[in-house]
Amino acid sequence: MLTKTASELQRNISSIYELCASTGEPVYITHNGEANLVVMDARTFEERDTLQRAVYEREIRLQQSIMRGWQQAQEGRLKPLSQVREERG
Fold first, then answer.
1. Each residue of 20-70: pLDDT tens digit?
2. What CA–CA distances, in Å, run from 44 to 8, 41, 49, 69?
3. Is residue 78 within 8 Å of 70, Cβ to Cβ?
4. d(CA 34, CA 80)
5. Rounded to two decimals, what is the model's pTM?
6. Integer distance in angstroms from the first to the last C-alpha of the chain?
7. Which residue spans within 1-89 are E strands per DSSP?
8. Residue 2 burial (CB < 10 Å; 0-12/13-18/19+)?
9. Which phi and psi angles does 10 have, rounded to 5°?
10. Can you tell me the mean pLDDT for 12-18?
11. Which fold has domain 2-40?
């Protein structure tokens, strides 16, 4: 975890910008010893945000599939695996 103080941010924002851009990692800015701000390169943020959205959407689709299967089981609409294999040849 990269950490800088608020004073360092005020004095030398360009070096923190370069650090974010070169490492692709967020930089935690502390004030009075506690992290209270995170600075990140915009390109890296967009990449992470896109990935996070894709993972979330996949999880939603998976949950929906599980719920459909559960509903089908409750309705008695399941077939044994051997029967499915037989039908597919």
1. 999 999 999 999 989 999 999 999 999 999 999 999 999 999 999 999 999
2. 22, 5, 8, 38
3. no
4. 58
5. 0.65
6. 55
7. 2-5, 27-31, 34-39
8. middle
9. -65, -40
10. 90
11. YefM-like fold (3.40.1620)
